Structure formats: C-alpha cells, structure tokens
Amino acid sequence: MKNRQTPPIPPLEDLEEELKRIKYQKRYGRMLRSTVYTLVIVAAIAVLIAVLVFPVLRIHGSSMTPNLTDGNIVISLKNSGYEVGDCIAFYYNNKILVKRVIARSGEWVDIDEDGYVYVDGEKLDEPYVDDHALGECDITLPYQVPEGRVFVMGDHRSVSVDSRSTSIGCVSDEQIVGKLLLRVWPLNEFGPVH
User: Fold this and answer.
1) Cβ-contact 155, 138 below 8 angstroms
2) What is the distance between the alpha carbons of residues 78 and 180, in angstroms, rounded to a whole number?
3) How confident is the model at residue 90 (pLDDT cuts 50, 70, 90)?
4) What pTM was estimated for this model as a whole?
5) Whole-angstrom Cα distance, residue 22 to residue 16?
C-alpha cells in the first residue's frame, strides 16, 4: 500500500477569496435570471397591449392620400364608438384596410355625380378630401346603412374601393380593428390622425 499524501491546505486568504467568487457567481446568476424574467414579462405585456388595445398598423396604398400615405405607421385604439370623420382600420379578406367613417347605422348616404357626399340630406364638410369623385360606385343611391354597420370611404375618392362598392360594402362592428389615433412614422409627420 502506497502512502498517499494529503494535499496542503490552502491559506485562509485563498479560501476566503474563493468563497467570495462563488457567492458573486450565485448573485450574478440570480440577477441575470431576474432581469431576463422581467424583460420577458414586459415584452409579453407590451405585445398584449399592442394586439388587444393599441394595434400598430402600417399603411399600404394610396386610398387615404394625402392624409395617410404609403409607409406611414399608425397606432389605433380598439373601442366601439366611431364618429363620422374618424379613420378606422378593419379586416377585409385577410387584409386590414383603412378608411374614413362617413355614416352610421340607419343613416342615408347619397353621392352626387361630382363626388360630394350627403348624409341624411345634408352635405358633409370634408376638409380631408382634396379631390371629390364618384369613384367605383355600384350601389344604388341613396343608400341606407344597415344595422350594426358603418359606411366608409377613402380620402382619395377616385382610387379608393370602399363602401361604394358591393365588393367591400359596409363594415360590421366585428370587422373593425380600431380607430386610428396617432401617426408615429415618419417622425417628421408625428401627430394625431385627422
């Protein structure tokens, strides 16, 4: 049997240093886990808010020019109260479209050959429209908006396909994503959506 030598005991200072290092590693690991958990929770909450309360949308196309242009990024608010003149986003054929509320349930919409819109016999004041046009209109005018729906039109009337066309028609409450509140991109156009 061979004689085994026991390793020498390290000095007390080295042991204390090693203990400090191990405690530091444990603290660092706990802090790192805590930070990661906090970031994951904050990200999950932000995603839920963005999806359920404030959907963020990117504008494609020219149907809302000059007020909203291709590439604008806007924040919308999910709610059920929409006024005439509000810009809303809604689902249509697996896409999200953006148009302006022109009339609500039960109201009568009429559009003359020059593209001026009348709701319940009164001409709408539409400062957001540069170019009035009848556009693609295959509905019978005057038209009464069905219950639980809103009549919408794009601001660029000559190119917008909207409630004037039977292919889109009036928008039901279930289709509506939200009311557009704020343009956040590009930064030089940051501000409320009118």
Assistant:
1) no
2) 9
3) confident
4) 0.67
5) 10
